[in-house]
Amino acid sequence: MENRGDIESGDLGEMENGDQWVNNECVIMLAKGELKLHRSRLQLSQMEEGSVLLRTELAEVCGTDVHLMHGRLDLVPYPIIPGHVGVGRIHASVGSVRDVSGVPVKKGDMVTFLDVLDTCNSCITCLVDKQTTRCPERRVIGISCPANGGDVKGLLGCWSSFIYLPPKTKIIRLPIALPPIVFMAGGCGLPTALHAMDRACIKLMDRVIVQGSGPVGLLAAILALHSGAGQVIVIGAPAHRLNVVKAFGIDWTVNIQEITDPSDRLRMVTDLTEGRLGDVVIEATGRPEAVAEGLALCRNGGTYVVVGQYTDNGDVSINPHHLINRKHVVMKGCWGSDFSHFHRGVQFMAKYSHLPWHQVVSTVFSLKDASKALSCVENLELFKALIKPGT
Ligand SMILES: [Zn+2]
Ligand SMILES: [Zn+2]
């Protein structure tokens, strides 16, 4: 990555006229495939009334960032500062700013925030259909906000020493019992998985089958277990990810690199469930062919939730007579998450902070190693990569 500027990031100071400034370092994705490390001195007097500046503690590198790097998402306003989930300490705020519980924020508070900055609350989708995750005005920090590394108001992404939170950003103070690195082990996959749980409507003792052992698949399996599932089976790969899945108390895993034929996997699941198959099947793979397999894994009248097809990976052939109509299957899509999922996700992580989350977060990268972090995530070399600015 090209490095620009000769100032030390993280420095702060005051100008002769009393203006506060900070030295910022951030990674800017100029276009698909192009990252640049950018340094600049930013004046805090440009902050808007009701806004907050966070000093970043940890930022996530997730599959979405890999998609952004390859230009696979529509309508991304490059250049952007990637990173849509992060934790930081309040460095500055202007005017009266409160967290979602109504408590005023103060300098030094460790907080996180909802990455969705805007839904319009005035369109048909928001008001009548009540599908705010599909609002056309939805703007997400680190994904659909253009970056300007030279203006404090342009620090709209987490791969940065400082993050600007515009007025009305929904801020949550991290509970004392929740260390930032544990919260980030849940990260962006947690609200997505929680939304999938809501869609799945799991009942006590349900048999739940999760396709995929990435962050969303792992979290869906953990949440299913804590939602009262009697049996959770995770179908995925590679083996090191399935070992992490098992460390969270999920007893049954099927390795797709060892059992390569879907009909063999169906036989295995049939045996494991004593011929009953899944009351609920959750797809978290991103692979279109998994959908045909997932429908086959549902019992008669079972529920199938598709949450992993975040980008367009093509078509797949499905026999609707056998797999949908005759099976009487309930099939649901699941797009994004809203504040209720995020808020409950923070509460879940605080209550279950004793689980072995350290197995999920194995490597913390510096900003200058962002490209390396991206390729590790893309190649499934580690479960989750984080960035800690200033290291
Ligand atoms: Zn709307
Ligand atoms: Zn993400």
From TrEMBL:
UniProtKB keywords: Oxidoreductase
Alcohol dehydrogenase-like N-terminal domain segment(s): 49-175
Transmembrane segments: none
Alcohol dehydrogenase-like C-terminal domain: residues covered: 215-350
SUPFAM superfamilies linked: GroES-like, NAD(P)-binding Rossmann-fold domains
One family name in Pfam for this protein: ADH_N
Single Gene Ontology MF annotation: oxidoreductase activity
CDD domains linked to this entry: MDR_TM0436_like (cd08231)
InterPro entries in UniProt: ADH-like_C, ADH-like_N, GroES-like_sf, NAD(P)-bd_dom_sf, Zn_alcohol_dh
Membrane is among the record's keywords: no
PANTHER family reported for this sequence: ENOYL REDUCTASE (ER) DOMAIN-CONTAINING PROTEIN (PTHR43401:SF1), L-THREONINE 3-DEHYDROGENASE (PTHR43401)
Protein name: Enoyl reductase (ER) domain-containing protein
Natural source organism: Marchantia polymorpha
